[in-house]
Amino acid sequence: MFSLTQITPTFGDCTAGYRVDLDKEYTVSEFINEVLKKEPNEWGYFKIKKNGMMSEYRYGELLENNFDNEILSAKVSHISASGGWTRMDYYLTIEK
Question: What pTM was computed for the model?
Answer without folding.
Answer: 0.94
